[in-house]
Design goal:
The complex is a heterodimer of chains A (112) and B (115). With 112 residues, chain A is mainly β. Chain A contains no helices and 11 strands. Chain B is mainly β and 115 residues long. In chain B, strands 2, 4, 5, 6, 9, 10 and 11 form a 7-stranded mixed beta sheet that branches. A 4-stranded antiparallel beta sheet of chain B has the order 1-3-8-7, with no helix packed on it. Chain B starts with a strand and ends with a strand. Classes of the chains: A mainly beta (112), B mainly beta (115).
């Protein structure tokens, strides 16, 4: 059974802190790993990762994939209160009964 | 826990036909279900929010007669794409929320290809 596990489930940090969110996966066939930020209802796309070891960056956010160890991390540096959200990790599979497998998300709260 | 399934996973249909996609919460009661559409490398676009036993609330720009949503029970919501056209080809994802909860649990998605 394909699965994606995110950790921690919830995290509270102070502004300025750096956080690392984890996503591990077990899928039969891997196409890509996606990170989303969900503040209200609709998740916003952050990154798509397909290759191991290549860091993707967008401002204070960065992410990297390890296809050997089957995990990805999402780093947020110098956190701000606007970073408070649920961060979702999903793995796209090219075939099978589950085209996209979502993790349960990490709820990040950044306090001033 | 909190597993959401979708059926079918993949569907290919001819233009002009209607396609029904089911979203089920397998181990919890979902008072609210959400339907999204996703394009590659893009954010999920919220199409509509459905509450059990009431009419769905559609987002601006989404045709309610085109995308029929029925939330018949606390564990099932359906999205019917009526008279599908090639531009409706997309990845449709549902999510479900427990009563009083803030967390959405996402289904695995349904890939629709309209020829």
């Amino acid at each position: 059974e394909d699965k994606v596990v995110q950790s921690p489930l919830s995290l509270v940090v102070h502004e300025g802190d750096t956080v690392t969110l984890n996503c591990s996966y077990e899928v039969t066939n891997f196409r890509s790993l996606l990170w989303y930020k969900q503040e209200k209802k609709a998740p916003t796309f952050l990154f798509m990762l397909t290759s191991s070891g290549i860091e993707k960056k967008s401002g204070r956010l960065s992410s990297i994939l390890d296809k050997k160890e089957l995990f990805s991390i999402l780093n947020i540096t110098a956190t701000q209160t606007g970073d408070s959200a649920v961060y979702l990790c999903a793995v796209e599979t090219p075939s099978g009964n589950t085209p996209l497998v979502f993790g349960k998300g990490t709820r990040l709260s950044v306090i001033a | 826990g909190a597993v959401v399934s979708q059926h079918p996973s993949w569907v290919i249909c001819k233009s002009g036909t209607s396609v029904k996609i089911e979203c089920r919460s397998l181990d919890f009661q979902a008072t609210t279900m959400f339907w999204y559409r996703q394009f590659p490398k893009q954010s999920l676009m919220l199409m509509a929010t459905s509450n059990e036993g009431s009419k769905a609330t559609y987002e601006q720009g989404v045709e309610k007669d085109k995308f029929l949503i029925n939330h018949a029970s606390l564990t099932l919501s359906t999205l019917t794409v009526t008279s599908a056209h090639p531009e409706d080809s997309s990845f449709y994802i549902c999510s479900a929320e427990k009563r009083g909860g803030e967390t959405q649990y996402f289904g695995p998605g349904t890939r629709l290809l309209v020829l």
